[in-house]
Write a sequence for this structure.
């Protein structure tokens, strides 16, 4: 069965799903995206993802191309046509097609919209979480508004590839103050020796992860102390547990950072429990 994508009003087999070479996403990375987890064919936390999408579009002054209700129908149609049970749905909106010019095109230029979906291997994801992952640290050399979920991800791409080249799975960005901001495609967390769960504040230096937001509810329900504050790489090395969060992997324990073992080098019990409990706190539409 060929995969089906939605491209500007049409559902097309992947091989025919094309965008114009003067699309501003292609030319400038001038667009935004969202990735939602799909379980049993249903979208997890759609409302929050759509709210973040609207915010990202607003920050870049890109028009929302259709109502959120219509967008929800498109997302579901793509999932149905691809028969996705467990996986992800990807949505990208760019400023549209116009002759290359850095300045915004005239307002009548319609944004471009693409939706794809992909099945993920649940057993493989569970095994990954069961083993935990290695991460490395890299300098955070991104722009100052990574709270906007733009498709301009070159530093993230390079960071992830550096991690892979060094035999790790993910990279953690570290800013000039030695503070861990977030992962290449995830939010970064530690649990201190005192048992406090710590993650970077949701300012302009990180993406305000939806998984991150929902996890606060799970953490609070467990009665754990939680702090949104900057933490250093040194503090992370000394942590009792570490983990990352993202829609594609929910909670993924980190067992080493820069080759240094975290805790006893196995997935931590709190991270593992939070992973198991997460969907109780998520919204499923
Ligand atoms: N990335 N930080 C960055 C830089 C990310 O790219 C992501 C997600 C997150 C976590 O956000 P959320 O919990 O809303 O997925 C944090 C997606 C999954 C991606 O690029 O594929």
């Amino acid at each position: 069965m060929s995969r089906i994508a939605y491209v500007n009003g049409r559902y097309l087999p992947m091989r025919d799903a094309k965008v114009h070479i003067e699309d501003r996403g292609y030319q400038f990375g001038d667009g935004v995206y969202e990735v939602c987890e799909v379980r049993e064919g249903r979208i997890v936390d759609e409302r929050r993802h759509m709210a973040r999408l609207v915010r990202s579009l607003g920050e870049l002054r890109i028009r929302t191309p259709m109502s959120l209700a219509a967008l929800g129908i498109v997302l579901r149609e793509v999932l149905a046509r691809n028969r996705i049970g467990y996986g992800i749905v990807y949505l990208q909106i760019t400023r549209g097609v116009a002759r290359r010019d850095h300045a915004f095109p005239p307002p009548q230029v319609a944004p471009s919209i693409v939706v794809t979906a992909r099945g993920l291997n649940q057993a493989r994801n569970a095994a990954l979480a069961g083993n935990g992952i290695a991460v490395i640290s890299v300098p955070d050399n991104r722009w100052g508004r990574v709270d906007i979920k733009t498709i301009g991800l070159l530093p993230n791409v390079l960071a992830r590839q550096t991690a892979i080249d060094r035999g790790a799975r993910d990279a953690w960005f570290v800013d000039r103050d030695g503070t861990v901001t977030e992962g290449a495609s995830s939010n970064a967390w530690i649990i201190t020796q005192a048992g406090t769960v710590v993650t970077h504040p949701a300012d302009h230096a990180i993406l305000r992860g939806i998984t991150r937001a929902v996890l606060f509810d799970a953490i609070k329900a467990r009665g754990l102390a939680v702090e949104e504050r900057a933490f250093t790489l040194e503090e992370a090395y000394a942590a009792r547990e570490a983990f990352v969060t993202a829609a594609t992997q929910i909670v993924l324990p980190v067992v080493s950072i820069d080759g240094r073992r975290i805790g006893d080098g196995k997935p931590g019990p709190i991270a593992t429990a939070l992973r198991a409990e997460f969907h109780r706190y998520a919204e499923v539409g």
